[in-house]
Amino acid sequence: MFNKRIKVKQLLASEQTGHEVTVMGWVRTFRNNQFLAVNDGSTNNNIQIVLELGQFDDALLKRLTTSASVKVTGEVVPSMGKGQKIEIKAKTLEILGDSDAEKYPLQLKNRPSLEYLREIAHMRFRTNTFGAVFRVRHSLAFAIHKFFNEKGFVYLHTPIITASDAEGAGEMFRVTSLPFDGTPRNEDGSVNFKEDFFGKSTNLTVSGQLEGELGATAFGEIYTFGPTFRAENSNTARHLAEFWMIEPEMAFSDLEDNMNLAEEFIKYIIQHAMDNNREDLEFLAQRLAEEEKQKPQAERSEMGLIEKLEFVLNNNFERITYTEAIDILLQSPAYKKKKFQYEVKWGIDMQSEHERYLVEKHFKKPVIVTNYPKDIKAFYMRLNEDGKTVAAMDILAPGIGEIVGGSQREERLENLEARMKEMHVPADELWWYLDTRRFGTVPHAGFGLGFERMVLFVTGMTNIRDVIAFPRTPKTAEF
Amino acid sequence: MFNKRIKVKQLLASEQTGHEVTVMGWVRTFRNNQFLAVNDGSTNNNIQIVLELGQFDDALLKRLTTSASVKVTGEVVPSMGKGQKIEIKAKTLEILGDSDAEKYPLQLKNRPSLEYLREIAHMRFRTNTFGAVFRVRHSLAFAIHKFFNEKGFVYLHTPIITASDAEGAGEMFRVTSLPFDGTPRNEDGSVNFKEDFFGKSTNLTVSGQLEGELGATAFGEIYTFGPTFRAENSNTARHLAEFWMIEPEMAFSDLEDNMNLAEEFIKYIIQHAMDNNREDLEFLAQRLAEEEKQKPQAERSEMGLIEKLEFVLNNNFERITYTEAIDILLQSPAYKKKKFQYEVKWGIDMQSEHERYLVEKHFKKPVIVTNYPKDIKAFYMRLNEDGKTVAAMDILAPGIGEIVGGSQREERLENLEARMKEMHVPADELWWYLDTRRFGTVPHAGFGLGFERMVLFVTGMTNIRDVIAFPRTPKTAEF
Predict the structure, then answer these.
(1) Which backbone phi and psi does A119 adopt, to 5 degrees?
(2) Is residue B354 a contact partner of residue B344, using CB atoms and an 8 Å limit?
(3) In this structure, are residues B226 and B160 in contact, taking their beta carbons and an 8 Å threshold?
(4) Distance of CA A322 to CAs A326, A352, A382, Å?
(5) Where are the coiled-coil regions (chains A, B) (predicted)?
(6) Closest CA to A419 of A383, A376, A394
(7) Cα distance from B421 to chain A (closest Cα, Å)?
(8) What confidence category does residue A474 fall into, taking pLDDT thresholds of 50, 70 and 90?
(9) What is chain B's mean pLDDT, rounded?
(10) Which residues contact A11 (CB under 8 A, 6 or more apart)?
(11) Cα dihedral sign for A413, A415, A421, A425?
(12) What is the ipTM, given to two decimal places?
């Protein structure tokens, strides 16, 4: 058994002294041949190891380079130095693995840029920034499961490979076992997908919602949390080709229930991170503040990261209809001064500049916009009595834009079939979906939350590539 | 707001009477124009609704068919009937959605076979069997996150789409945006994958382990829980083309730490299901007992489902080396009577019949087999001092076979490079993996648990297609 160690996080939290411990980790710094800062990834805080002068031979000390791995046993003693209450007086010191300082790609002294760190994403976990980001990401993921488990939602794994391309949420990746050379063909020359692995043409899922509805109309309430995909050539700081999505779906629920759940959910997971990752969030707040200093005054955020999260926790989300949102935009100084690049009128699919105006300038808080024109929304959204809007809701967050998209679903078979026909959604492919409306249909609703956008919001990072371990974007699938 | 209801599970648990409640759910049975059994998916138990004779008109009563959805308000009163302590005296009864009894595909009275239910997987959640299976599945998934969160492991989302095909764990599905007609070609006629979405040839992941090791060598301990894929034409009751896998990876750990963690982990999640899903497990135990009655005496299990789970919780897993396992097989009556179909000798990759003998006949409990011949294991497993075995471990479970595969990883750069060369694993594609051995390498270990096999084990189901919502197998990708 090798692993008889105490984690640094636990050691620092206890503040106990006088006993002997073993820690293992990677060298962050080594000063004056005496003070060794060791990090084990459990926290950004290092444990200071004090070596007595002459205690270890020079050949060993020379090997204590950045990212060398060590095993240290010694007594925990009160620290005289600044920044830590305890330290370890080394008794034994073993180097587990060397790290050639000349070749090590992560020279922290040079303050490597986020862009450079993306190129060495296999090593960036060893920086304070990414240590904090991925511990917060973990914490949010756990909070999501905890929230739904407490409420009695069933976690449903909806399929990743799907033959259904009916939802039309975006371009899809093909999944295939067929070769490009000597592809099996039908007599008319088209590809014979009967020869493919699944006996038909298959893709990577863009959403688990339709299958989620099958679960909700049996278990009452379900959620998904899995990867989804878009084969869209969007090279922006907010788009990924592969990302994780959470999609709860609730039977016996209408649009208001849906909004209430989404708001409670977002606050719950932020609160969980605030309670469990305070140090990491404070580090990220500091990082963001420094980044903001580089910006012109006018572009800086009014609130720091912690302040922003507390504000979200302590205030109700603004709830307005799409029609009200358009009115606000039309009345805005920005509109009157012709500052919007895109047209504003009832019926438009609001652009990022419009959403940002509502959220960042007008309300200065998260906004839930409801009841969008049916023509810009999906076929499964419930038609309102006005005949021209649907019971949709989008949640817009400051700095991020759309973070949640949801709706009450159209539970009336005739309406659903009519909408599918109008929008050329093939009813025969979705016979199973329609069956939920044929046999004991119920009012139901649900939403999707893009997990990485949520992590962006909570960590204050600005590029979505920096909150997922190994980002997949056009022309990039490294590691 | 529509959703002001009490869930049936909560209602039955409270046993309180005298107050008014609203329940919503689907009709399971309606007897004597008076007793309505409603299920809302929170539990297999129905709430009995009592309608007074004459209280509702006949036209309404006729619509109370199986799977019609209803909203009922009434007083909770003590029940005179058998099987429930409380029932609801209906005050109002609303049918939310009808269910045409002639067309409804799930006639429970006919005891539909599991095979038939796979064809209507969108409806099978509404049966007691699948209700229980998927609530237990949920519970196991939650327990997995809870276990690792408590231990300070970071949940890492490793990539689903990957350009790396180095692990060689099995055949892979291609992920592509290239067309089959007019595929871009290089001058030599080969496919020009530079034109593909990611600028190279990409596949669906077979394992997140290699990326997991990148996380473990920074955070100390990580785990993955995500979908993995095999494009293998295996049409068996134990194989899926798409399945979920859990892969913890721990720095500063050896093979023994790895075994200890795996055993603790398996017991923890089973205990969680026993504590939280007792009713569902009892239902499944009953189902299994009935299924077993159809079998000849000799093929029946010695233990019932609950007994089996308790046995696993209360006994240490047997730990033997591969060499000991082969010796046991060679000494066995089965071998001497030539009952094994496949050859037994040191160096073989044990077949299912051998594993089952060890687990079900010889030890009658889960067995951890360690230190396999290097030639039948992956390149990344740590070479033992004997030069011919590696520090691998497989956990074999009764009735399931291999449920966990793991190893201590080869942390020594020279050894790893030599093994990769021997096994023709391209080192240049895995430069990032080798970097973890170049910069502060540490002893580390990890394992993979096939989630569906674990669900099979805990639920007592016998076909893996019955424990995942929408199974993907050769020629099948429905829903």
Answers:
(1) -70, -25
(2) yes
(3) yes
(4) 6, 15, 15
(5) 274-301
(6) A383
(7) 20
(8) very high
(9) 95
(10) A21, A23, A47, A76, A86
(11) negative
(12) 0.97
Report CB contact under 8 Å: B244, A218.
no
User: Could you read off the pLDDT of B358-369 as tens digits, one per residue?
Assistant: 999 999 999 999
In sequence order, what are the residues at sequence separation of 6 or more whose Cβ sits closer than 8 angstroms to the Cβ of residue A238?
A400, A401, A453, A456, A464
B-proximal residues of A, 59-78, CB under 8 Å: 67-69, 71
Do the chains contact at B411 and A97, CB–CB below 8 Å? Answer: yes
Are the C-beta atoms of residues B71 and B42 closer than 8 Å to each other?
no
For B218-260, the pLDDT digits (tens) are 999 999 999 999 999 999 999 999 999 999 999 999 999 999 9
C-alpha distances in angstroms, A281 versus A113, A267, A306, A397, A465?
20, 16, 7, 18, 19
Q: Determine contact: A13 vs chain B, CB below 8 A.
A: no
**Contacts A123 to B, Cβ<8 Å:** 214, 218, 435, 439
Token pair listed for A228:
């989804």
Strands (E), A169-214: 174-176, 202-204
Q: Are A204 and B197 in contact (CB under 8 A)?
A: no
In this structure, what are the phi and psi dihedrals at residue A477, rounded to the nearest 5 degrees? Answer: -145, 50
What percent of chain B stands above pLDDT 90?
91
- Window B:421-440, CB contacts with A under 8 Å: 432-433, 435-440
By CB atoms closer than 10 A (0-12, 13-18, 19+), residue B281 is buried
Q: Enter the pTM of the model.
A: 0.97
Distances (CA, A) of B260 to A107, B217, B323, B369: 37, 20, 21, 13
Q: Which two tokens stand for residue B89?
A: 């005296």
- Residue labelled with tokens 């069956």: A435
- Measured between alpha carbons, how far is A129 from B349 in angstroms, rounded to an integer? 45
Say how many residues make up chain B.
Answer: 479
Write down the pLDDT at residue A37.
97
Q: What is the mean pLDDT of residues A64-71?
A: 97
